[in-house]
Specification:
globular, 12 helices, single chain, Aspartate Aminotransferase, domain 1, 4-stranded antiparallel sheet
Length: 350
């Protein structure tokens, strides 16, 4: 059975839009896309021309970074676009479903609701670990996508590699396992991208928004079997990546030592912050984390949120998430920013 048998048949059969840039081959004078022949004032990137749908230099750089083949990679506007494409390609409106494990990243459910796909929830355990048996027991014939987030947002725990392999093997021929690795650069265990070649029903989400400091550029990547990548390209908008964003991504990827240095600082500061926060009056628990944030339980999370906000410090209120009604999520900032947070929480002047 091919993984494409799980996709919507009308998507497999459709004739995709063929953009002018996709059809062009060679040439020096471009009169096929109704573009302006003049660059705008101060433009040194040639933004008067449409960008390549999948820029070759960026695809090559990301494939090398993630250790996959070019055909196993799709780049788009953050991980959000890849999530949306997966749901639209594999879930028939009003018939199919996705499966998630709350508390987790909210866009999985949002994209499913937009598509009118059902959302089946299997809560994480009390310690926020994933229960593989419970997930598999909840998979129905309607479930086409199973999302897991590792490290999980907003709690920070990872899913062990053995659990990922058990899930993807058990879901073969039934559903696609989507592993969201947005924060994996901060985790000790590392990526499971090397499994892409073994399982055609495995998809992995990666992003340059976190460790590579490009949240504003919106560059995300989907790693998957070549057939899945080709299918999603059929329904992807023709020009997803603005030229300035591509340039920013290539510049960042050309200096990996800068990202590595920042990751090391975040990892070190995460340990410092976790130990210090655990000693703050009113803190009930600091959850273990392998991401660039900490979820912290407070006696009065609402009051703490307002106190930090009054001092000009914005953290994430995650009290609406299941089993986190007393928690805030605090991103690890610079050492100075982290010290400021601790000073406020320890009773320092605002």
């Amino acid at each position: 059975m091919s993984v494409l048998d799980l996709a919507r048949p009308e998507i497999r059969a459709m004739q995709p839009y063929s953009s002018a840039r996709m059809e062009a081959s060679g040439g020096k004078v471009f009169l096929n896309a109704n573009e302006s022949p003049w660059a705008s004032n101060g433009d040194d990137l040639g933004c008067n021309r449409y960008p390549d749908p999948q820029p070759a230099a960026l695809i090559d750089a990301l494939a090398a970074l993630y250790g996959v083949q070019r055909e196993q990679l799709l780049v788009g506007r953050g991980s959000d676009e890849a999530i949306d494409l997966l749901v639209r390609a594999f879930c028939r409106a009003g018939e199919d479903a996705i499966l998630i494990q709350p508390p987790t990243f909210g866009m999985y459910a949002v994209c499913a609701h937009i598509q009118n796909a059902a959302v089946i929830e299997v809560a994480l355990a009390a310690d926020f670990t994933l229960d593989v048996d419970a997930v598999l027991a909840a998979v129905t014939p309607a479930v086409k996508l199973v999302f897991i987030c590792s490290p999980n947002n907003p709690t920070g725990q990872t899913v062990p590699r053995a659990a990922v392999e058990r899930l993807v093997q058990a879901l073969a021929g039934r559903a696609v396992l989507v592993v969201d690795e947005a924060y994996v650069e901060f985790a000790e265990a590392g990526s499971v991208a090397d499994l892409i070649g073994q399982y055609d029903n495995l998809a992995i989400l990666r992003t340059l928004s976190k460790a590579w400091a490009l949240a504003g550029a919106r560059v995300g990547t989907l790693l998957a079997h070549a057939d899945v990548i080709a299918l999603l390209r059929r329904i992807m908008p023709p020009y997803p990546l603005p030229l300035p964003c591509v340039a920013a991504a290539l510049a960042a990827l050309s200096a990996p030592s800068v990202a590595a240095e920042h990751i090391a600082v975040i990892d070190e500061q995460r340990g410092v912050m976790r130990a210090a926060l655990a000693q703050v009056a009113g803190v009930r628990e600091v959850l273990p984390s392998q991401a660039n944030f900490l979820a912290v339980r407070f006696d009065d999370a609402g009051a703490v949120y307002q106190r930090l906000l009054a001092a000009g410090i914005v953290v994430r209120d995650v009290r609406r998430y299941p089993n986190l009604a007393d928690a805030l999520r605090i991103t690890i900032g610079t050492p100075a920013e982290n010290a400021r947070v601790l000073a406020i929480l320890q009773g320092g002047a605002a």
